[in-house]
Amino acid sequence: MTFVTQLSQKAWIWSFVGMFMVWLATAVYTGGKGSADVISAALSFATFTVIVGIGQMFVITTGPGNVDLSIPSTISLSGAVAMKIMDGSNGMLVVGFAISMACGLAVGLFNYTLIRVLRIPPIIATLSSSFLILSTAIAYGRGLKIKPPPLLAEFTTAQILGVPVLAIVIIMFAAVMSIVLHRTFYGRAVLAIGQNARAAWLAGINVERIRFMTYVLSALLAALCGFFLSGFSGGASLNMGQEYLLASIAVVVIGGTSVAGGKSNVPGIWGAAMFMFLLVTMLNTFGASAGIRLIMTGLIIVAVITIAGGEEA
Amino acid sequence: MLKKALMGATLLAATLNGGLALADTSAKRIALSNNYAGNSWRQAMLASWDKVTSQAVADGVVAEAPAFTTAENQVTEQAAQIQNMILQGYDAIVINAASPDALNGAVKQACDAGIVVVSFDGIVTEPCAYRIAVDFKAMGKVEVEYLATRLDGGNLLEIRGLAGVFVDDEISAGIHEGVEENPQFEIVGSVHGDWAQDVAQKAVAGILPSLPEIAAVVTQGGDGYGAAQAFAAAGRPTPLIVMGNRYDEMLWWKEQKDANGYATMSVSIAPGVGTLAFWVAQMILDGKQVPQDLTVPFLTITQDTLEESLANTQPGGVANVEYSLEDAMAVVTGE
């Protein structure tokens, strides 16, 4: 009993409860047909949301007003540049990956420069940089769709016993990031800044350096997502990052991270990402029209957040 | 007298040499007001516009024909852009509009200023403007009619476009109308793929496990390759997937065709329709009679024309047709 009570106090548990219920509803509706395959598909697609969700989580944790809106365009830029450099050749994989990370690094540096040097609020800074980044991607790729190197395509779509390999990798990565958040100086500094930036500064934390690292981390993860996503979906496209703008924020919030900052967790991001995918799948399976689907998605998300954040408010 | 005769001779010569390129519009300026550039179709549209209009400028058909794209795909922004074009004194404005009715005010101002307005793809409803519209409903219906020639019937999966957009509703209505007339088909699932390959892949992968055997997939273009990948990932047999005009879709089709004789068709709107709008604007400035409402012909790719279309499309681009003045005249006269 105490275990259940303990569990119910964890903010992240609710995204998993929501995920399970939505999955169950789908399974009941279809009479159990393909229920295991749905989980496998959900793992595949949730992986990408989780990658950017983790970056977004660190940014949001640093306190009110901190959010990275340049994630979608960074995904597009990184994917487009990496695919073009590699040009479908396995031999160029390492180079392509390095270039992709360089894109992320550049975006992170640029974002932070806007925020710190020009003192632009993060929302505006990352939004305006996203226009510049997407324009760069357009100018560079002209909507070009180049197939990924076969090795990358295989790796991103490979499965072991129905479990996507990439999902396993990212689950392990999430575990590492969870340790980083709760057990390392950097992670604790992020939490401290989110709770009270001034107190954190007085306690001797180099607030600006931590913020700098956080924006760079978010951009790097967005670039990583772009790299894998282009491998997974057979090439980069200009609008491939589009749906990750709201998704990256939604999974963080549904996962039980406080929008006000200073309180966050990693497992919830996985639960929320799975939940979001299964929710759309459920409504598609029910044959709900687009209007009803959007309304239901909104209502269910509000419900989950309300329950998850209930004891907090 | 001599002067007149000379002029007449020059005119005659121009008519004979340049075919249809009359000199009358050589001082005219035509602007393109475009609301969005963030996908490969729009990129191809702008590239076609640039190619055809630079040639037209070089040939002295018009003085200039610059293209302007708004950054935000916002109605207010495009309205302001059109007002700027009025002030800059363009003779004609060609519009791919962000909204069918919200730009009507700005379009009316342009008409009142004596400017010819031609809208295409994203058309405007203001009566004074010319419209080059796409019969999206017929496009949807064509797909089902094609399926009827290939299959005895079966379950269909429908991939729709972007929810809430007029085009999506129209194509889908056409598909459903086609299914009504061909009751051997049944739509057992419907997802929104947003005309994007990755979104379609995600949506199809989600719904697929719960679906019975699928005989064919009806699409709206841009989503065919994603659907194929979702079927492959789920380990299900590849159904007949109606394709769009993207390079990746045609390339996949070609690979399948070579490997196992896979046959399908593709129906789409060529991005070069922008150049049709350009010539229509030029013809109106030239004093020709043009109906207020025109319909764009579809670009259909069949099993036989696939290789040719693929060869003419650059990797990452979309199958395209650019219009010449003669082609535009054929459309206008309905030939």
UniProtKB/TrEMBL annotation, chain A:
<feature type="transmembrane region" description="Helical">
    <location>
        <begin position="160"/>
        <end position="181"/>
    </location>
</feature>
<dbReference type="GO" id="GO:0022857">
    <property type="term" value="F:transmembrane transporter activity"/>
</dbReference>
<keyword id="KW-1003">Cell membrane</keyword>
<dbReference type="Pfam" id="PF02653">
    <property type="entry name" value="BPD_transp_2"/>
</dbReference>
<dbReference type="InterPro" id="IPR001851">
    <property type="entry name" value="ABC_transp_permease"/>
</dbReference>
<keyword id="KW-0472">Membrane</keyword>
<protein>
    <submittedName>
        <fullName>ABC transporter permease</fullName>
    </submittedName>
</protein>
<feature type="transmembrane region" description="Helical">
    <location>
        <begin position="269"/>
        <end position="286"/>
    </location>
</feature>
<feature type="transmembrane region" description="Helical">
    <location>
        <begin position="212"/>
        <end position="232"/>
    </location>
</feature>
<feature type="transmembrane region" description="Helical">
    <location>
        <begin position="12"/>
        <end position="31"/>
    </location>
</feature>
<feature type="transmembrane region" description="Helical">
    <location>
        <begin position="122"/>
        <end position="140"/>
    </location>
</feature>
<feature type="transmembrane region" description="Helical">
    <location>
        <begin position="244"/>
        <end position="262"/>
    </location>
</feature>
<feature type="transmembrane region" description="Helical">
    <location>
        <begin position="292"/>
        <end position="310"/>
    </location>
</feature>
<keyword id="KW-1133">Transmembrane helix</keyword>
<feature type="transmembrane region" description="Helical">
    <location>
        <begin position="93"/>
        <end position="115"/>
    </location>
</feature>
<keyword id="KW-0812">Transmembrane</keyword>
<feature type="transmembrane region" description="Helical">
    <location>
        <begin position="38"/>
        <end position="60"/>
    </location>
</feature>
<dbReference type="GO" id="GO:0005886">
    <property type="term" value="C:plasma membrane"/>
</dbReference>
Automatic annotation (TrEMBL), chain B:
<dbReference type="InterPro" id="IPR028082">
    <property type="entry name" value="Peripla_BP_I"/>
</dbReference>
<feature type="domain" description="Periplasmic binding protein">
    <location>
        <begin position="30"/>
        <end position="289"/>
    </location>
</feature>
<dbReference type="Pfam" id="PF13407">
    <property type="entry name" value="Peripla_BP_4"/>
</dbReference>
<keyword id="KW-0732">Signal</keyword>
<feature type="signal peptide">
    <location>
        <begin position="1"/>
        <end position="23"/>
    </location>
</feature>
<comment type="similarity">
    <text>Belongs to the bacterial solute-binding protein 2 family.</text>
</comment>
<dbReference type="InterPro" id="IPR025997">
    <property type="entry name" value="SBP_2_dom"/>
</dbReference>
<dbReference type="GO" id="GO:0030246">
    <property type="term" value="F:carbohydrate binding"/>
</dbReference>
<dbReference type="GO" id="GO:0030313">
    <property type="term" value="C:cell envelope"/>
</dbReference>
<protein>
    <submittedName>
        <fullName>ABC transporter substrate-binding protein</fullName>
    </submittedName>
</protein>
